[in-house]
């Protein structure tokens, strides 16, 4: 753990193992932080806030730029750590490190644009001035599926704003966080400004973030259930909260779209990170006129996918994170098949050629998916493409919006009017129009409804860490 500028073990001396999900091998032991450790980290962050919040934007930008450069210099090492610990293919891990570093670079620039404003008053002897100030100590909890970028997406704007932070990474992927913090230390991170607490049991850390009055803001990425629980606790102190939670993204192939192009797009976005992404398509609506061509192309793409360790060349399907993930996916597939879905390919755990040592599931296509199936409502977080055929376009928006989630949606169409209608009518925070990667450090990422609150990235991402203060000056 990295607390107050020093590497340290847990105060009670305990630790927990980290394993490779591709083969079950133990990679390392990391400190198992508890209540005393998180309190020490919060104290360090609270002490550092006074000086860090008074640095100039240029000083903060300098640190962020330096960290960006060092992340890029160490891209291969970070990517390898990620592939071993989390499982995604090396090429995808490299892309994630680039995306993660981008947050450091982008918010280094944005730090210099934390503008206030003056407002004309109706009284001749009065002036209004609006200041933006850092909210204070931030408690951040991050998930395992994007173990580097989910840290920088929170930390870069927090530090740019002048906040200090305590980060708790997911128990499955603490090594990525450790390697990242080594880079921050090398980049000259002042003691206490950002602290890392690793823990097998996240409960005491979550509890401290929600109840310690020194923590002014909670930022969380993970499941909707945990996000709701933490937000309700944090509400007792009216802490600022931002949440990036689950999703159930519609992927709509309109009547006028080229189904082959859409299927290519789907094959890329659906199976990215083996489907373990909150913006992964989970309800694929294909107009009946294009369904055959769509399924034909998708099946060919899936047939060419190779599962295995992400270190191996040519592998595009890495392992799922653990046994529970495999069971959840399998349960949804079995439920769908029992209720009349048609299995086009996949539909089973992969065990041949040594894959049984890891948590592999075959890339799967289900046709004839209907509303009564679990997969139609529950997030899958696995490599399953559930295809739904539609005929009535008037019903489409209603069907796509009929979910408690509201994170991402994708639409394939060549008709500008239809694209605009979908863009405006879909109740999701991120809409990809003929675009399967509508994410960037410069673009606001976040969801509506039970997918969360607040945005990350872009100027909205910085707002999450800033208070607005009004000054009324009487000149009398
Ligand atoms: P997932 O199902 O994707 O693992 P979780 O919400 O369980 O999603 O985990 C996301 C992050 O939230 C991880 O860092 C995890 O340790 C943390 N977490 C899980 N349960 C709690 C909790 N009760 N309090 C605080 N953090 C938690």
Describe the structure.
The chain is α/β, with parallel strands linked by helices. The chain has 2 domains: 2-245 and 451-474, 3-Layer(aba) Sandwich (Aldehyde Dehydrogenase, Chain A, domain 1); 249-440, Aldehyde Dehydrogenase, Chain A, domain 2, CATH 3.40.309.10. It is 38% helix and 21% strand. The chain contains 14 helices and 20 strands. A 7-stranded mixed sheet has the order 14-15-16-13-12-17-18, with helices on both faces. Helix 5 (149-161) links the parallel strand 7 and strand 8. Helix 3 (75-86) packs antiparallel against helix 6 and helix 9 (259-270) crosses helix 10. The chain is globular, with a radius of gyration of 23 Å. The termini are far apart. The model has no long low-confidence stretch (mean pLDDT 98). The structure holds adenosine-5'-diphosphate. The site of adenosine-5'-diphosphate has 12 residues, from helix 7 and helix 8.
Number of helices: 14
Structure summary, number of beta strands: 20
Structural class estimated from helices and strands? alpha/beta
Beta-strand content bin? 15-25%
Bound molecules: adenosine-5'-diphosphate
The CATH architecture of the largest domain:
3-Layer(aba) Sandwich
The average pLDDT score comes to 98
What is the straight-line distance between the termini?
Answer: 55 Å
Radius of gyration, taken over Cα atoms and rounded to an integer in Å: 23 Å
CATH superfamily of the largest domain: Aldehyde Dehydrogenase, Chain A, domain 1
Low-confidence stretches: none
The gross shape turns out to be globular
Helix content: 25-40%
Remind me, CATH topology of the largest domain? Answer: Aldehyde Dehydrogenase, Chain A, domain 1
* Count of separate structural domains: 2
């Amino acid at each position: 753990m990295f607390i107050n500028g020093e590497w340290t073990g847990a105060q009670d001396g305990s630790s927990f193992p980290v394993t490779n999900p591709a083969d079950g091998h133990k990679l390392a032991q990391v400190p198992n932080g508890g209540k005393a450790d998180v309190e020490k980290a919060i104290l360090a962050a609270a002490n550092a806030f006074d000086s860090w919040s008074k640095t100039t934007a240029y000083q903060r930008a300098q640190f962020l730029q330096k960290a960006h450069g060092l992340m890029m210099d160490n891209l291969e090492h970070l990517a390898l750590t990620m592939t071993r610990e989390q499982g995604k293919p090396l090429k995808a891990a490299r892309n994630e490190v680039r995306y993660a570093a981008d947050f450091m670079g982008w918010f280094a620039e944005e730090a210099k644009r934390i503008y206030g404003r003056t407002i004309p008053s109706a009284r001749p002897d009065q002036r209004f001035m609006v200041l933006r100030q850092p909210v204070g100590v931030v408690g951040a909890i991050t998930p395992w599926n994007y173990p580097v970028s989910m840290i920088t997406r929170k930390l870069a704007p927090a530090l740019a704003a002048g906040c200090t932070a305590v980060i708790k990474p997911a128990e499955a992927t603490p090594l990525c966080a450790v390697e990242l913090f080594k880079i921050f230390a090398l980049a000259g991170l002042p003691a206490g400004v950002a602290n890392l607490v690793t823990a097998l049991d996240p409960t005491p850390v979550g509890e401290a973030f929600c109840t310690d009055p020194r923590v002014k803001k909670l930022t969380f990425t993970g499941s909707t259930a945990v996000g709701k629980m933490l937000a309700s606790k944090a509400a007792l102190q009216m802490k600022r909260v931002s949440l990036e939670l689950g999703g159930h993204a519609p992927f709509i192939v309109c009547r006028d779209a080229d189904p082959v192009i859409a299927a290519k797009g789907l094959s890329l976005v659906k199976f990215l990170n083996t489907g373990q992404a909150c913006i992964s398509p989970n309800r694929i609506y294909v107009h009946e006129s294009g369904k055959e061509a769509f399924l034909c192309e998708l099946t060919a793409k899936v047939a060419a996918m190779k599962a295995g360790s992400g270190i191996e060349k040519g592998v595009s399907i890495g392992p799922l994170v653990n046994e529970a993930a495999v069971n959840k996916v399998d349960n949804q597939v079995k439920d769908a098949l029992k209720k009349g879905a048609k299995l086009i390919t996949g539909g089973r755990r992969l065990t041949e050629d040594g894959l049984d040592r890891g948590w592999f599931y075959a890339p799967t296509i289900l046709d004839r998916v209907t509303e009564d199936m679990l997969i139609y409502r529950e997030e899958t977080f696995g490599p399953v493409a559930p295809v739904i055929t539609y005929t009535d376009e008037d019903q489409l928006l209603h069907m796509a919006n009929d979910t408690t989630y509201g994170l991402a949606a994708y639409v394939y169409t060549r008709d500008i009017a239809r694209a605009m209608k979908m863009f405006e009518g879909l109740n999701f925070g991120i809409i990809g129009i003929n675009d399967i990667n509508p994410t960037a450090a410069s673009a606001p990422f976040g969801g509506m409804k039970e997918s969360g609150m607040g945005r990350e990235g872009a100027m909205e991402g910085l707002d999450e860490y800033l208070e607005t203060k009004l000054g009324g000056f009487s000149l009398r």
